[in-house]
Amino acid sequence: MMKREIDEFLQYIELEKGYSRHTKQSYRSDLLQFQAFLEENRWSVKESEEGGLLDVDPVGIRKYLGLLHRDKLRKTSIGRKVAALKSFFKYLVKKGRLERNPAEFIQTPKKEKYVPTFLTVDEVFAILDKSCRTEKMGLRNKAMLELLYSSGIRRSELIGLNKADVDFNRALIKVRGKGKKERIVPVGEQALKSMREYVDEGRIGAVPSGGYEGEEPFFTNRKGERLNPRTISRIVDHMTAAGGVNRKISPHVFRHTFATHLLDGGADLRAIQEMLGHESLSTTQKYTSVSIAKLMETYDKAHPRSAGKGKK
What we know:
The protein has 312 residues and is mainly alpha-helical. The chain contains 13 helices and five strands. The strands form two sheets. A three-stranded antiparallel β-sheet has the order 3-4-5.
């Protein structure tokens, strides 16, 4: 019923808006799910003679969101689905396929308070010190985790990093973030050292791959190809276990750890925002809750007149 419009919209957000492939896939799943709901429940979708979409009953949208709430879907997931619908209908209005946006006044659920998971300094050192430095893949894996912790880049940004993006002399890397926006991020001495060792002794000659303008990837697999997300997750699983960290750690936890440790060290919040590539400062501010909690814990343990001091 809306398949053609959905396909056109997905092409639009990829080619013209610069959305990532991950966002495109998520929006596709959300919109197809909504389409299936409308068809199953026979909510009215009026079409012109040419088959162009003209109107969608807003009540149908509310019933759909009500179903998601009854299924106890997380608020973040519902919020993403609302965003997908709003963007989709806004696009159709722009193209003259819809007279109005039926989701315009649908409220996005308030986000749940989320405290990021992060590693302690001792845990990070244990993971990095246990990594293998002798064989090629070991050199690569250590360099990847050192870079994740040193720069706070996302897993997708690590995958998309090209050889030409690394400036060893200036200790900088060029990162392509969400919406293909580029930013320059500093890299620490230890990460640079591991990356140099990887380039000199462990890097396998790269085979140019599609999706990144055919440029030569910095991190490669045994075939010289660009890495995929699952491979990086498996590497993180293996290395955290080898370091004695007995909890589930994702590649994104290194990003949280980077920001939290910088904030604990006195770094400016706006500088952290720039390095992480956050559009809004409010996104970066979630790390302050972690630092404040740690600060209060230290205070309670140390201050003679704190609530936690002197208790037996």
